[in-house]
Amino acid sequence: MKVKNLFNSSLLMLCIACGTANNEKKEMKVKETSPTYKFLLGTYTNSPEQGIHLMEFDPEAGEIKILSSASDPDNPSFVIANKAQDRVYAVEETAGDDGGKVGAFSLIDGKLKKLNTVKAEGKSPCYIALDPSEAFVVAAHYSSGDFSIIPVAEDGQLETVVQVIAHKGSSIISNRQAEPHVHSSIFNPKDGNLFIADLGTDEVVVYDFDSKEEKPLNPEPIFSLKVTPGAGPRHMVFNDAGDMLYLVHEISAEVGVYAYNGGELKHIATHKLTEDSFEGKVGAAEVRLSPDGKFLYASNRGDANEIIAFKVIEGGDLVHVQTISSGGKSPRNFNITLDGKYLLAANQGSNTILVFERDMETGEIKPTDIQTEIHKPVYINFLP
Q: Mean pLDDT over residues 309-333, rounded?
């Protein structure tokens, strides 16, 4: 009888243990379906506690919070990370006699730590990109109308600028385009060529880039695309195949669609970001593709303060899906979580970041009640 009772007790304990294990597995599954999202945030700064922030968006808790900050840089308006996510690079968007700077930071155990800072050798650097080999940083300088090539050392620190390429020319909007204004720099995902958007000269210039060389950039352009005069090229994005370029035209508030083949760009279509009846100031700012490449989004500032969604159709052209308020003033930047579920809009003018839910089937977004106040948010970069 004692043996039987002992057996029953052992069986009961085993069932309890299995039940506990199953509950733990269920809890783990619940946690897996409720991820949090980490991102880097670049800002404009007015005081020492401002700078680059490592942020976390938690949909379940309904909050966005700061995990750590690097208060060293002045106006770190554009911030990127390397593939390993342990190095961060940011501009210091300043002008003056010494021009702007570019800084390198480590990102270890959720903490940002300054590595070093170098002169950008240009005024008002507003955009940076890592080349595919991550051996160089390219900094675009708005005020001086040029861009610089900066080597990256093995330890992640930045070295002295090795090349500065100056643009020449102007366009038809006298108060905005009297001189070159280099606004962005991106690499084609397939052939590695460097693309430079110049708001002042109304062109996108394509350069050959060889990271094996000490001076990697051939200063003679492969190709130069002249967009419609007065458009004001600002930011660009390639599709994954690298054969379609989408360019936001800041001054005319449009998105241009361009096919890319054999080193050359060909205009396909241009889509307005405003209704024909719209009256007021505009200022198109950012352009993004959804992670699956099926939808494109752009932001428009001025009096519009909107996010505009398009569907990417066969051949790479766009069809308008939705126009919606950004929920604040001057949506300088926005970004989509890597799983495509949310869009976060950084409203520089109202000092807020607002969360939108995203329908991955229709591409439409809708505002949530999740937002946070933070000083002049300028650039959002999600981390895996």
A: 98
